[in-house]
What does this fold into?
Amino acid sequence: MLQIENLHASVDGTDILKGLNLTVQAGEVHAIMGPNGSGKSTLGHVLAGRPGYNVTAGTATFLGQDLFELETEERARLGLFLAFQYPVEIPGVSNMEFLKAAVDAQREQRGEKPIDAVSFMKTARETCKIVDLDPTFLKRGVNEGFSGGEKKRNELLQMLLLQPTLGILDETDSGLDIDALQVVARGVNSMRSPDRSFVMVTHYQRLLEFIEPDFVHVLAGGRIVRSGDKELALELEARGYAWLEEEVA
Amino acid sequence: MPDFMQQPLDRAAAVAPPWIQDYVQAGRTRWEASSMPTRKTEQWKYTSLRSLQPDYAAASDGAIILADAGIELPRFQGFRMVFVNGHFSPEHSDSKAPAGVSMVRFADADAAQAKKIRDHLGVAVGREQPLFTALNDAALAEGVFLDIEPRAYIEQPLHVIWVSGNQGEAFSINQRLLVLCGESSNASVIEHFAGAKGEQQSFTNGVTELLLETDASLNHYRLHLEEADALHIGRVHARQDGRSTLNSFHIALGSVLKRIDLVVDHVGQGAHCEVNGVYLPRGQEHIDYHTCMEHRVPNCTSSETFRGIIADEATAVFNGRIHIHRDAQKTKAELSNRNLLTSTRAEVNTKPELEIYADDVQCAHGATVAQLDDMSLHYLRSRGVSRADAQVMLSFGFINEVINSVRCDALRAYLQALLSERFARDPALSGGVS
It folds into this structure.
């Protein structure tokens, strides 16, 4: 589904990713862990095409297409979804309008007509229940005045409505209490299927107790330095990252 | 003073009711003694008057028929009064004002109403006597007096519409509205300027006076929805007695000359006003808002937010003055003006102007000029929304934040529909498609 080869990327002239390789097959859940500043979030941003994140070498192929040849919205329409670590507040644009525009963009891609407002409203309200978000949040500006946890639930709400092929969760667990974490985990687990994959970027092992990964990778110094199964996450939890960084150095 | 307004002034002198003739004559004397501002006049530094025609005819009655001119006027369930090219149109107006309100044309005023009008006309404008108010006084052939009784609670908005359309020549409309909000009354007034489709060479010179007595509350809306060739120089003066509340909302779509002055005078302690506005010039249009909060007494608050989107080669001016007099201790005044330029040729001149003579006040102001936020754009696109659609959503959202302050539900929905259609149709308003 996703193949990243020798990816180099820089932000503001500083090299962050330095030869990253990663292959994600359909149906798999990958966790990417690593110390602060190792490039975890950069990976998600590069894949989503954030301005200012420059690919200097390497390739990424998503569903057979060269990801870096596609505009951000084309990547999304192809089924790539990045749950932002810091979702953006957009006052004046109602959450409902935003969600409908996103869903309609996917439908347009499939040659379908825009969804009718009434049935979308119904779906959105039901999905709010799943992510434990009060439906009044649909009427508010996008993420406007939402707490950290509410923003993360709103990301999950979007992911549930858009049903992407590949979900990249950028530190979705950070700042969440245990109840919220379980809500996120339930949402992700309910979406797991043989033709859908997830890449979870996280700093802590805790999320992996609720969403069991097939693979765990350690990102350090802009490269994946160790891959394993969920046991690796436990080892990291116990020993920290320093020993790995030393090994690599 | 050039005599480009000779015809309308002569007409006013001929048709104004006898009880106001001296007022009209005094206006004319002032007007004739003054001279036109130039670009060196501070108040008119960024707004040129060169698009005014060399000669204006008086507006003639019956020149346009609304249905033929493609105008559909909205109804907001309240009482409606319609003027077409400055002339009252009974067929489009409601006949009976709600209880607690009298809404009367100057021409129809009885003796008691005439006295009340004379007692209050010009009071809010005060001694300042701006040039175009002199012109308005001098051309006072028609006016509306809205008298809200003390303690009246008027739920539905009082909607006055001035429509302009082609008269086959350059012509002038003189608009005057006097609103008297009695003690502890509560009402909503919509001043609505609309234009017929197609060309017209109209020049509207408007003056509105809002007098709020003690504890009165007024929701005031001034909509400039006429476009293109409808020139407008307008002025709103509000005078607030103690503990009165004014919410004043403004919107202006462009024309080559649109200049609106808003002055709010706090003359009684504990008065509060909230002023919100948006302006959206495009093409070669020019919109100029000059606002002034006069804090004369202690313990008053004012909060003001204006936002503009300036597209193509359009220009805008926002001059926000806060004047806190020496006695006005414990004043709280806020002013924010944000502008979005969607083209490299668009221009805005924004200037907060603070004059503070009291020492115990809170005053905050800010003005910004920017383009669409990259991160917001990226966020929307990362959900599959095209760049063009995302730009439309963000630009509309920027304006919609202010539209959301409109308390009248029907009006808010009307404006949102109007603007979202405008944004969807004209990519220049949101920065075009790149």
